[in-house]
Amino acid sequence: MDSIFLTLPYARENKVLETIKKAGLYCSGKTKWIGYGYLIDPVGCGIGNSRNRAMEAMREVLLSDGYDVMGFYMMD
Questions:
Q1: What is the DSSP letter of 11?
Q2: Cβ distance 16 to 8 under 8 Å?
Q3: How far apart are the C-alpha atoms of 56 and 73, rounded to whole Å?
Q4: What is the pTM of this model?
Q5: b/e per residue, 32-65, with b = 16+ CB within 10 A?
């Protein structure tokens, strides 16, 4: 159940969640994992390796754009 963990310390939560929803992704809200951030699921890509590839692609794009993001790996 791989996801990305995105930290946006000064962003408004409702705006972040609205943007995530518009992008076709899922996030239930701000979460405390390693600090506070958003655990975003790559929806519609299956499970296992396909979900892992989707998560890593999302992470690489956000990293290249300068966001503070990390991968969350969980076996399914």
A1: S
A2: yes
A3: 10
A4: 0.86
A5: eeeeebbbbbbeebeeeeebbebbeebbeebeee
d(CA 55, CA 17): 18
DSSP letter (8 states) at residue 74: -
Question: Rounded to an integer, what distance in angstroms lies between the CA atom of residue 32 and that of residue 23?
Answer: 22
Q: Phi and psi dihedrals of 52, rounded to 5? A: -65, -45
- Contact (Cβ atoms closer than 8 angstroms) between residue 25 and residue 69: no
Q: pLDDT per residue over 1-49, tens digit each?
A: 789 999 999 999 999 999 999 999 999 999 998 889 999 998 777 777 8
pLDDT at 75 over 80: no
